[in-house]
């Protein structure tokens, strides 16, 4: 089992895509079993026994598991009963627990990943490439995945494992290659290397950390949510509860971190607070004003800043120039408009300011948002939201898909804002980020806030167990010596 | 930045020019294949098109086309396909003709009344599609196509002697009551041979200016464009997307209501069975050609009117005037392909350039750091 | 503590927010799902029961109102004739959209089918005409594929452009080819082709006559069945049989073969398909060109079966209606066939000036609405129940106050029906997930 590590944008995924024939290399060779090969498209790679489990699953929701598995390799066992038998056979021998006739859209994340692995095995792959397989899993699911992978290794398969989570890499890999800015910078033996050494190799210098130093929490409530309920129809038209009796308060200067496996209602909660969905019951109060049923625009004007989870869908107009993106979401506010009319000149001037202050790397404000890198896009969004002096900042996965440099800047800005008395609702799948930045932690599971924890003492594993519903209530860390010195005191919620 | 702007302009012009060239080539090939001289035909068109009576005809025709183009473009800017402009303007013109024929007020009231009725009816018919979209999730494309056909049925039911129309004994045509003189729009007289320029061109020009101003200078316009570019981002930014869809369909429909007005108020003064149909689809072609830009739509409308006008003269010269239909079809198809190619080229080039500039900047800083370290 | 802090370098989330086919949060409204694989599809016994019920209701309506044309063999065979082109257009749309390309250019491709079908048909025989019509449609499909797949033009824009182009071209060529020489001598003019020989048809000897006799007795149910059956077996054109076979073949190819699976995967998740070595462009091209061919068949059918000439504007928007029938059928051949039958029925009513029959069917609509209202009330959605009941009452009043429906309204029926069906069920329909979305090779990188 070979691990490939490197920070975001180091070229890991590109390398894997070349190995899998999805991209063509300019130069260089690939050898499998000592034999030199060239792949023109994924079909070639598959024929040579190379299979890939993509970071974003490559599954068609509206097809069954069986159909997804046999697609592209129909010649092997047809698309009918023989294929079904074969799938069950593979599934049983590796303990994957696959049901072939279920529609993929009805599967959870971990199940989908197992379908992806089965797809690869079905094609007789001897070399498996897994691109960031643990990014979407909670720690318990990660363990199950690693068990599966060890099973494969025992059968004599080669596994290439891409990750930037060093702890995992050290625990599971037999060999590690580190790449940075598109070149191999070294290799390491997991038995003798520490995460710190590996990390420095990866970034080439000391790493930033999301740690928050001093507490700035006040006792002035900024956002109060009480008894929030939301139902939404699912695909069958049946109304289901997606938010159930949500209640919390964020004070001025407090960062409330919300942990949870994706799809447990965090996105809906954000949309309810933003007014993109109208809650069925409950009261939302911002700085003493009831905004439970105010439209989104009103809420933004009243001081909610929003760094959305999916910036391409919710935060930017990709084909519009930067200065128009600066107006987006704040069209009714200074300096973007006067009365009903736009003030393009002022908006452009202010965009120049944001670009300079927030270090957005761009040749100018007339280029489209799409031409910026993810990190610079995110800096623009953060800059835009902070420019309107929000009272509450909703930051959903603020550093997702952002390079290390921009990540540190965004963390700094959140800390800075917090010092100035901002309330922050932070949602992240990155548990270290959550624990490092938050003053208070809450865990969301199936639309309910099931647990809360003190970020000063909790570990990602303990948080993870609450995220799967295994534990609830006040999470108390079982103290060990290593945790003796808490250096950040969390805001007291209860 | 100035340099980029110039290039952008160049890229913007490149697409329609490419499309026109393609149209010329294809049309020539078709003419040659059917045993006709292409260049002679183009020359005939060119020389006939610039005659003064042709110019007046083209301006008058372009007025109608321009309004149709605007109506479609309002939807396009929202990423809505109002294919129903056709039904909207016919129903609107019919209703306006009926109402105008029933009352006889002074011109200052009669004209606004007719125009407002037309806009309201057009807006209502388009608004139905908007409501179906936001309320029931029905694609506006299918809904407006169906509404076109339903409008046809309604008109053919009502446009019958004894219902809302009369039979003209002389021409054997069925039409609504002729509008009173107060409901006739003014005209500009030119030289007598060329005939008058219809006054409604003023309204069309005003509509174009309003379109430009609202879309690019107002908050409402920004919201509308936002929805067109990304519905999800618009919603997150605080635009009420559903309301915006209905509103823009209403605006598009109201604009469509104006499409029949030049014909009704300046030419026919009644709605008869021969009232021009199919202009809604011409509007789609023109909006595509003009890229939803008010100036571009004007050029497209003039071009279409020019082609229409000169097609008749071709017939006199031994060509088939239907060749213009081929030409128009080729122009539309190649212009959409050309725009897409140019757009993709422009985006790719910009991304490359941004990458290069940033890389150069990074090299510079790296060099400075090295120098500083030394 | 230190352990936690040192691993914090992993922060930053490795996921790129861009093109994510599987970001689960993108569709929050549908997050939790019931594990029913066969949602929205009825089992065969239930389907048969519904059919039987509908048949009984129709019989009852005929018997009560005495509008014999409701189930007459003439009406039914007319329905079949009108349903085939609509069904073929729908089938064309089905192929294209299952591969992820919206084909609103069907109308244009049908026009090409009518024109080229008639052009080759009058000079030779209907079979060669059919081939020419299909080829003409395929040409349109090829253009659409080039524009949408290769050049990435918006599918609807391209479709509209192709329809305009097809109109312009056929008008020009009709004038050149039908208005000159031999063709003109045989009755061709710029808007019409010379007549085409009849398409051979099947009439089962003896059976048709005896069915007709039974039908004329107007016995409850028996005569109705005889009328329907008679309509289906009398003067059945070979083209109709071929079209029916194409429906079965479509189902088989799309759902039972590897080719079909690949094609459908291109409409559901092209990036996933590409990652498995499927040549997405190839399948999209194949689907759209085949789609054009089917639409061309529909056009050729129109020119040769219900009439024997090409007529300008003959398609009369049937391409769009076909698309509506496809949506009505939830992107499946069976449902599409039912939709096409429904639209064909109203089309046929209008052609036969079936005001009284349409009027009788108002009663049927009343019955259906009452049933719907009862169901809604049973399901406790009172508002919709009351609304349905109110509609039923209004229709009943209309039914009782009049004794015919103006022909114009009959002609609008398919359109109104489409709107109503879509309005009532649009949220339950499931279109292919990547339908109408632009796809570029390698965009998943």
Automatic annotation (TrEMBL), chain B:
Q: Where are the transmembrane segments?
A: 56-76, 88-105, 111-132, 141-159, 193-215, 245-265, 323-342
Q: Would you indicate the residue range of the signal peptide?
A: none
Annotated protein name in UniProt: ABC transporter permease
* Coiled-coil spans in chain: none
In terms of superkingdom, the source organism counts as: Bacteria
Q: How does it sit in the membrane?
A: Multi-pass membrane protein
Question: Localized where?
Answer: Cell membrane
The keyword Calcium is annotated on this UniProt entry: no
Q: Which UniProt keywords apply?
A: Cell membrane, Membrane, Transmembrane, Transmembrane helix
What InterPro entries does its record include?
A: ABC_transp_permease (IPR001851)
Species for this entry: Streptantibioticus ferralitis
The answer to whether keyword Phosphoprotein applies is no
């Amino acid at each position: 089992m070979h691990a490939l590590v490197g920070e975001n944008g180091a070229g890991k995924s590109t390398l894997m895509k070349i190995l899998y024939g999805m991209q063509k290399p300019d130069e260089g060779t690939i050898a499998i079993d000592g034999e030199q090969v060239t792949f023109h498209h994924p079909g070639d790679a598959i024929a040579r026994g190379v299979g890939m489990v993509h970071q974003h699953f490559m599954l068609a929701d509206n097809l069954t598991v069986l159909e997804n598995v046999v697609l592209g390799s129909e010649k092997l066992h047809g698309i009918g009963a023989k294929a079904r038998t074969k799938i069950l056979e593979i599934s049983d021998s590796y303990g994957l627990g696959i049901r072939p006739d279920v529609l993929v859209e009805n599967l959870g994340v971990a199940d989908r990943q197992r379908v992806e692995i089965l797809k690869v095995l079905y094609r007789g792959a001897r070399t498996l490439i897994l691109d960031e397989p643990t990014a979407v899993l909670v720690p318990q699911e990660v363990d199950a995945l690693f068990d599966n992978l060890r099973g494969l290794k025992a059968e004599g398969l080669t596994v290439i494992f891409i990750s930037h989570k060093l702890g995992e890499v050290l625990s599971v890999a037999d060999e590690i290659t580190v790449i940075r800015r598109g070149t191999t910078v070294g290799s390491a033996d997991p038995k003798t290397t520490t995460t710190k050494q590996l990390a420095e190799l990866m970034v080439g210098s000391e790493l930033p950390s999301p740690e928050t130093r001093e507490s700035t929490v006040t006792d002035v409530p900024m956002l109060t949510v009480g008894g929030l309920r939301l139902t939404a129809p699912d695909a069958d038209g049946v109304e289901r509860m997606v938010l159930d009796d949500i209640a919390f308060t964020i004070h001025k200067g407090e960062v409330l971190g919300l942990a949870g496996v994706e799809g447990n209602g965090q996105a809906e909660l954000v949309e309810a607070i933003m007014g993109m969905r109208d809650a069925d019951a409950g009261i939302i109060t911002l700085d003493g004003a009831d905004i439970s049923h105010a439209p989104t625009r009103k809420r933004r004007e009243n001081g909610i800043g929003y760094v959305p989870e999916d910036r391409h869908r919710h935060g930017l107009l990709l084909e519009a120039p930067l200065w128009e993106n600066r107006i987006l979401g704040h069209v009714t506010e200074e300096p973007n408009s006067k009365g009903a009319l736009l003030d393009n000149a002022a908006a452009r001037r202010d965009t120049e300011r944001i670009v300079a202050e927030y270090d957005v790397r761009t040749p100018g404000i007339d280029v489209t948002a799409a031409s910026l890198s993810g990190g610079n896009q995110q800096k623009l969004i953060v800059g835009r939201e902070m420019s309107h002096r929000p009272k509450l900042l909703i930051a959903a996965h603020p550093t997702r898909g952002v390079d290390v440099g921009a990540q540190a800047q965004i963390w700094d800005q959140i800390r800075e804002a917090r010092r100035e008395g901002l309330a922050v609702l932070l949602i992240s799948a990155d548990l270290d980020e959550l624990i490092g930045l938050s003053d208070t932690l809450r865990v969301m599971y199936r639309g309910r806030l099931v647990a809360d924890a003190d970020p000063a003492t909790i570990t990602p594993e303990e948080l993870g167990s609450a995220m799967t519903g295994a534990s609830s209530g006040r999470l108390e860390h079982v103290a060990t010596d290593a945790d003796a010195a808490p250096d950040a005191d969390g805001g007291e919620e209860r | 930045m100035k340099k980029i702007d110039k290039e952008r302009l160049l890229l913007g012009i490149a697409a329609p020019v490419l499309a026109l060239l393609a149209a010329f080539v294809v049309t020539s090939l078709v003419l040659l294949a059917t045993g006709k001289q292409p260049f002679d035909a183009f020359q005939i068109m060119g020389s006939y098109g610039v005659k003064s009576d042709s110019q007046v005809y083209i301006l008058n025709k372009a007025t109608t086309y321009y309004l149709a183009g605007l109506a479609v473009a309002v939807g396009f800017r929202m990423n809505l396909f109002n294919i129903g402009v056709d039904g909207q303007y016919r129903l609107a013109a019919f209703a306006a003709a009926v109402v105008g024929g029933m009352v006889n007020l002074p011109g200052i009231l009669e004209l606004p009344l007719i125009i407002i009725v037309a806009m309201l009816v057009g807006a209502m018919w388009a608004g139905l599609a908007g409501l179906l979209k936001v309320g029931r999730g029905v694609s506006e494309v299918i809904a407006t196509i169906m509404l076109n056909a339903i409008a046809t049925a309604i008109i053919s039911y009502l446009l019958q002697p004894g219902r809302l129309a009369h039979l003209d004994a002389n021409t054997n045509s069925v039409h609504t009551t002729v509008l009173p003189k107060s409901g006739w729009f003014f005209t500009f007289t030119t030289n007598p041979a060329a005939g008058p320029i219809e006054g409604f061109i003023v309204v069309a020009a005003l509509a174009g200016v309003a379109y430009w101003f609202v879309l690019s200078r107002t908050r409402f316009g920004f919201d509308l464009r936002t929805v067109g570019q990304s519905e999800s981002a618009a919603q997150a930014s605080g635009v009420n997307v559903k309301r915006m869809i209905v509103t823009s369909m209403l605006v598009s429909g109201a604009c469509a209501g104006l499409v029949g007005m030049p014909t009704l108020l300046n030419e026919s003064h009644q709605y008869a069975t021969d009232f021009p149909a199919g202009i809604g689809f011409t509007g789609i072609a023109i909006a595509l050609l003009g890229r939803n830009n008010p100036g571009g739509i004007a050029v497209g409308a003039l071009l279409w009117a020019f082609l229409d006008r000169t097609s008749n003269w071709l017939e006199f010269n031994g060509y088939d005037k239907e060749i213009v239909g081929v030409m128009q079809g080729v122009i539309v198809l190649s212009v959409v392909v050309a725009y897409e190619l140019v757009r993709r080229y422009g985006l790719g080039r910009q991304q490359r350039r941004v990458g290069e500039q940033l890389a150069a900047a990074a090299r510079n800083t790296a060099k400075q750091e090295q120098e500083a370290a030394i | 503590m230190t352990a936690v802090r040192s691993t914090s370098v992993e922060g930053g989330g490795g996921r790129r927010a861009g093109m994510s086919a599987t970001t689960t949060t993108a569709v929050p409204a549908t997050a939790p799902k019931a594990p029913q694989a066969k949602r929205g599809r009825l089992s065969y016994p239930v389907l048969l029961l519904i059919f039987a019920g509908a048949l009984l209701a129709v019989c009852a309506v005929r018997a009560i109102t005495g509008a014999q044309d409701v189930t007459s063999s003439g009406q039914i065979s007319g329905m079949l004739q009108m349903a085939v082109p609509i069904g073929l257009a729908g089938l064309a749309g089905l192929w294209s959209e299952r591969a992820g390309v919206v084909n609103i250019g069907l109308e244009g491709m049908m026009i090409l089918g009518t024109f080229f079908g008639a052009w080759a048909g009058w000079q030779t025989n209907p079979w060669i005409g059919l081939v020419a019509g299909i080829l003409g449609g395929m040409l349109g499909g090829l253009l659409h594929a080039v524009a949408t797949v290769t050049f990435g033009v918006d599918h609807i824009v391209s479709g509209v452009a192709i329809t305009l182009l097809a109109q312009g071209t056929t008008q020009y060529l009709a004038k050149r080819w039908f208005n000159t020489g031999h063709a003109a001598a045989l009755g061709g003019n710029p808007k019409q082709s010379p007549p085409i020989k009849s398409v051979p048809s099947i009439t089962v000897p003896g059976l048709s006559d005896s069915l007709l006799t039974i039908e004329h007795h107007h016995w409850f149910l028996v005569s109705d069945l005889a009328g329907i059956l008679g309509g289906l077996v009398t003067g059945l054109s070979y083209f109709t049989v071929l079209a029916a076979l194409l429906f079965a073949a479509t189902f088989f190819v799309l759902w039972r073969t590897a080719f079909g699976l690949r094609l459908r995967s291109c409409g559901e998740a092209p990036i996933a398909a590409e990652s498995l070595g499927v040549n997405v462009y190839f399948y999209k091209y194949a689907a759209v060109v085949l789609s054009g061919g089917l639409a061309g068949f529909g056009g050729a059918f129109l020119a040769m079966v219900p009439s024997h000439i090409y007529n300008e504007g003959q398609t009369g928007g049937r391409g769009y209606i076909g698309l509506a029938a496809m949506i009505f059928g939830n992107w499946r051949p069976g449902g599409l066939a039912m939709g096409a039958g429904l639209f064909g029925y109203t089309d046929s009513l209008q052609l036969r000036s079936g005001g009284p029959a349409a009027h009788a069917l108002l009663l049927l609509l009343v019955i259906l609405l009452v049933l719907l209202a009862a169901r809604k009330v049973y399901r406790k959605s009172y508002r919709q129940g009351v609304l349905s009941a109110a509609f039923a009452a209004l229709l009943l009043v209309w039914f009782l106050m009049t004794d015919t429906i103006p022909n114009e309204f009959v002609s609008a029926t398919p359109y109104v029906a489409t709107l109503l069906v879509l309005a009532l069920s649009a949220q339950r329909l499931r279109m292919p997930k990547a339908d109408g979305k632009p796809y570029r090779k390698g965009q998943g990188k």
